[in-house]
Amino acid sequence: MKIELDDLSLLDANKANEFIIVLQFAKMKFYNGVMTITNTNYTTRLMVNANLEVVKKFCQKLIGLGTKHSTTIDVIGWVVRYSPSEDFVSLTPYALIYQIKQTVEKSTYVTCGTVIDIDRDHAWWYKACRQCTQGLEALTDQFYCAKCDVYSTIFVARFCIQVRVVDESDTATFVLFENSASKFLGLTAADIRTSMLAKGYGRDHFPEQLNALVGKTLLFKLTRHDSLNKFQACVITVSRICSDPEIIASLALEKNIQLDALQKLTTATGVRSGELISNGSIV
Ligand SMILES: [Zn+2]
Description:
single chain, 283 residues, alpha+beta, CATH 2.40.50.140, 2 domains, 5-stranded mixed barrel, 3-stranded antiparallel beta sheet, 13 strands, 22% helix, binds zinc ion, NA-bd_OB-fold
């Protein structure tokens, strides 16, 4: 939501970097995906960083639903969302898949690869907490969120799609969560699940919509985490996907990525680890 304030002294007076705004007695209308707010007979009040219970509660919710009982608002950081071009080409370091797998600590990279398969043995969605997106523990007649320490009978379906990605150096399994997957597919996990249930498909049915990922050469912004079990060397989670051909071409030019060759890699069998590394394509 974008709010324009004419009176900047209102913000200066607060001497704060972050602002929590409370609107009282306003008319809100949601139409065609756009929320409009209008004044109601000149009674609307706009309060910035007001010392109100509702503001304090909102702060606590933002910082982890009471895990840190701070009542000040200075703990809330900005979520900076860079443009795809900044994020994928200039700001995040690029690495080949084999380099990502060799990294020892948790780190974030951009890589370019072709999706060759989706792991159908692994569930493509999970039951998430409505408040924090954490996976829920199923109890006999309800669910439990360990992060929020809350019991509930309601869950939200969120994506956790495991895709097999190949580049010129190696292959790896990337986990796509709700934000990155739904932006690419144009559908949420809840949308797909609802349509599957409406068609009478069972839990084991694999939704065709996910195949839109297969065969695509994409940029992935990802984070390599240490694995929690001994069967897996690491877990690679994707926070953002870029399918913009101009941005892909721009990164390919800068990092000497052979896009033609990459687009032809549609099976893992064509890749032998290390085979193409001597071509000088390591950056
Ligand atoms: Zn939760």
